[in-house]
């Protein structure tokens, strides 16, 4: 009979898979790097499969390692629930959490996260609302939510700490017969006097795109507000303007000969999504679980490339990230 998986080894494995390096995992768990390495070696020997590829670029999960990482998140949450219940916290499976998130994350990533969260906490209470980047931070400061998911995490300050989830890049969408579609990369200067289709005129991302373009001498003829990504695609299909959407959303949409996507040169359109928590409050079990699920979703969005590091609030502005649509 096969031995059960050691829960401590499983926790160490998940931390290493999340952090991406022995040094970061050791700091998180207050262990030595050699202790982390020894635990992973024993776990791989016990399971009979390699969990990480070891290369000069660091540790990368194998397909079996990715499977174990995905399955271990709710499993560890359930084990923590059992421990809490046995030690007197009978409300562990009814834990509550309030979250605000950028619109695209809420639309495309949150459904799977919420479903798995509810499996971990059958009687739990999860409230998640959509908000623009600055509104998310205000809700957190006003203690109306416990955590937020947004792009362009806040700069240095005592109020927040953040965990980087993944990076994306805004791609230019246009009708397939648009002359710009013949270019592999579109220079930002070619966007001058073009119509831009956006979800919301007053979003942080829209405002920043417009401001960055102005610095390059580019002025859009007009911006159409259409409310959501599906409407943006329909407008582009009808040749009513150009749009800028994250690359991971572009990949999720059904391929169409009517719409093509191209990168833009001469302007920085990469962004960093982050999970932001207040420094004045330690996260509860529900918060820790939700963050792990966000990291799992981030790993998928990044194509299996974990951009998973923890910081106290510090980030360059939109040059390295722009806020969520």
UniProtKB/TrEMBL annotation:
Domain HTH lysR-type positions: 5-62
MF term (GO), any: DNA binding
Assigned keywords, A-Z: DNA-binding, Transcription, Transcription regulation
InterPro entries in the cross-refs: HTH-type_LysR_regulators (IPR050950), LysR_HTH_N (IPR000847), LysR_subst-bd (IPR005119), WH-like_DNA-bd_sf (IPR036388), WH_DNA-bd_sf (IPR036390)
A GO cellular component annotation in the UniProt record: cytosol
Pfam families for the chain: HTH_1, LysR_substrate
Transmembrane segments: none
Coiled-coil residue spans: none
Alphabetical list of PROSITE patterns matching this protein: HTH_LYSR (PS50931)
Alphabetized SUPFAM superfamilies for the sequence: Periplasmic binding protein-like II, Winged helix' DNA-binding domain
Homology family: Belongs to the LysR transcriptional regulatory family.
Name of the molecule in the record: LysR family transcriptional regulator
